[in-house]
Write a structure and sequence with these properties.
This protein is an all-alpha fold. It is 83% helix and 0% strand. The longest helix has 32 residues. The protein is globular and about 50 Å long. 54% of the residues are buried.
């Protein structure tokens, strides 16, 4: 009974974390979009990652020594994926409506979810989510070649990010691996950040950057990282189908971008498919037994 409660709690927590991460990412993108004209997309990405790295390092105080080379390789690759994902996504947002940019980016975790399915029945839910994503990014939004290229680049990076989140989460204790990976991403973008810093428009611009970094990187990445540790990259990848829905909603509410009836249907499809995957993941774990973390927790009771 206790094990069942732990599995149910983990599934519910995962859904809440992914919803929270998605909301944070889309809100931060809407905030940062206003800085693109003056600071630039790469400069904005780098500065917000620098803010997030500083916050996470102060909070987690990660230990640098004693980590095996394989763990460091995962941390560095995770940081590279973060930097690439942020730059690609912000360039896509600069060329496309927010909902469309997020739709293209979601193709990355979608393929992670699809290739991680165990049966034909399981594969129906990522496919349903993809159908919903297609409805959200309706063709009348205007798809530029540059926007398409950046969106697909963001998808590739997001797929790597989803897989590496699980690897770094299993190899590291707490949030130390995450904070080091964010720092790696910030260091990679540091030359662009330094060049862009003088162009930040006053205190208001710095406050917007700080808010975007804390909300969209420090908090959002922490939520996604924790969700992947609770479940798996496959489940997290499917639940991230909520991102295009959240992007369409935030685009409509904050950026005054059109939300169509087709997009509304798409939102319903991705939410239903995400909920189904979370439920089936809990049922599957109930058949195969508790995870290592759950068995450790059970021994405490």
């Amino acid at each position: 009974m206790t094990g069942q409660r732990l599995r149910s709690s983990a599934a519910i927590a995962c859904v809440i974390l992914i919803l929270g991460a998605s909301l944070c990412i889309q809100l931060s993108a809407a905030i940062a979009k206003r800085l693109f004209d003056t600071v630039g997309t790469v400069g904005t990405s780098g500065l917000r990652m620098a803010v997030a790295a500083l916050v996470l390092i102060v909070l987690t105080r990660p230990v640098l020594w004693g980590r095996p080379l394989r763990e460091w390789a995962g941390i560095v690759l995770y940081g590279v994926a973060m930097a690439a994902m942020n730059v690609s996504f912000y360039n896509a947002v600069a060329n496309l409506p927010l909902g469309m940019a997020v739709t293209l980016e979601f193709l990355g975790p979608f393929f992670v979810a699809f290739f991680g399915t165990r049966s034909r029945w399981d594969s129906m839910f990522p496919l349903t989510a993809l159908a919903g994503v297609g409805l959200i990014g309706d063709s009348t939004s205007g798809l530029s070649v540059a926007g398409l290229a950046w969106g697909l680049s963001a998808a590739l990076a997001f797929g790597g990010y989803t897989v590496l989140a699980g690897y770094v989460g299993s190899a590291s204790t707490g949030f130390s691996g995450l904070s080091l990976s964010v720092t790696v991403g910030a260091l990679l973008l540091a030359p662009f950040s330094a060049a862009a810093a003088p162009r930040v428009p006053g205190i208001g611009g710095w406050l917007a950057l700080a808010a975007s970094g804390v909300i969209g990187v420090a908090i959002a990445f922490s939520f996604t990282y924790t969700a992947t540790r609770l479940t798996s990259p496959r489940v997290t990848g499917t639940l991230l189908a909520v991102d295009p829905a959240m992007g369409a909603l935030i685009g409509a509410l904050v950026l005054d971008q059109r939300l169509t009836a087709a997009a509304g249907l798409g939102i319903a499809l991705v939410v239903v498919s995400g909920a189904a995957v979370a439920w089936l993941a809990g049922a599957q774990r109930g058949k195969t037994g508790a995870s290592t973390e759950e068995r450790v927790e059970l021994r405490k009771h």
